[in-house]
Amino acid sequence: MEFEKSTLLPVTADELYRWHMRPGAFHRLVPPFQRVRVLDEPDGIAEGETLTMKVYQGPVGLRWVANHRDFIEGRQFVDEQIRGPFAAWTHTHTFEPEGPDQCRLTDHIDYELPMGPLGRLVGGGMTRRMLQRMFEFRHTRSRLDLMRHASISDDRTLTVAITGASGLIGGHLSHFLTTGGHEVRPVVRSREEAESGDGIYWNIDEGEIDADALEGVDAVVHLAGENIFGRWTDAKKHRIMESRRKGTRLLSEALADLEDPPDVLVSASGIDYYGARGTDPVDESDGPGDGFLADVCQEWERAADPARQAGIRTVHTRFGLVLSADGGGLKTMLPAFKMGVGGRIGSGNQYFPWVHIDDVVGIIHFALFEDSLEGPVNAVSPQTVTNSEFTQILGDVLSRPTWIPVPEFGVKLLFGQMGEEALLSGVRARPKKLEDAGYEWAWRDLKEALEYELGQ
To answer: How confident is residue 56, by pLDDT bands cut at 50, 70 and 90?
Structure first.
């Protein structure tokens, strides 16, 4: 059996080949609607090396070992299954020049299903549909990532320290940066992990950070913080506030004292800074609102003052709902919506600022290089939707009904203050600074973003 997907991309064949060779490329190519866990991965790929992963179908995980072979510099390599769910699998990647500034990416799969003719009869159509979904996603993300890297005229390769590098945003960002040739140094809470690799040690509770290891990094991205979701006890609220205030203060003071400080600090924040604003649009020129989350965002941003005062360009990315099937709010919603029991939250009239994970990565990458960006930056899509509109679009993409609303009293009963501030309140945030700076969104339309992310 055979499958082939071919796409013309606006980069050279050599650029596309190098992108595939670098660490992080495989992770960028795994569709979020497929559960894959890497067990053993080389630092980049080369002739004769193997990649070991576990591929899940429901709760069942199957071990898959692939061998890399038949490399032709700048033009081809092959992955062959040594062990896995297929009776046979050979995947040939080819990169053919088509003119001076574009090339053709072709993925050709020769495969056989288990159980011979019976396997083809039972699983042939399903497997082909799975391959079509998978490679549509892979080719789209390859194009988006390569164009994102090419859009930066500054050809420097950066060394970037990242807190929260193992989280949803940090993981995607790390893999994106390494495929662009940049070096990522995670800021970690384990001395052993820091000493065994390129990590930088810190301990927020103890007020400890290895400042010497930060000397000479070009940029820092600060993403670490306690998850806000869940019922807010006094202890939970204390952890939410202190993880952001203490962590940011510890990091920014260390950066301010360096002999060779970074050029830029990108520190996460949230659109909750504005509080509940109803239908009135807000941008970065608007002041803070009321509520616990608004207070958290103000303290979070204020804690970066030492870095700012030391002359480090400091950007506060105020994120909306991050669309990713890998984690965050969308992943939490999906089971109910897939079962056809999803619905609007409360009245549904509250605005639901959103941003796709690819644009989260793109905005941070843009902020690392764009000197005009400083201070608060609304990291949201230009398309503003209400919760009711979001709900209807998600249901349409999944072909599921959305007629079971979550009543306001139920949200308050289950989640208390967290439900009121994070789910029932809304803000119509506009990304004015990004628009003025010329940032180009990968995903401006919610329906298209969800179709891509969910493989629909």
So the answer is: confident
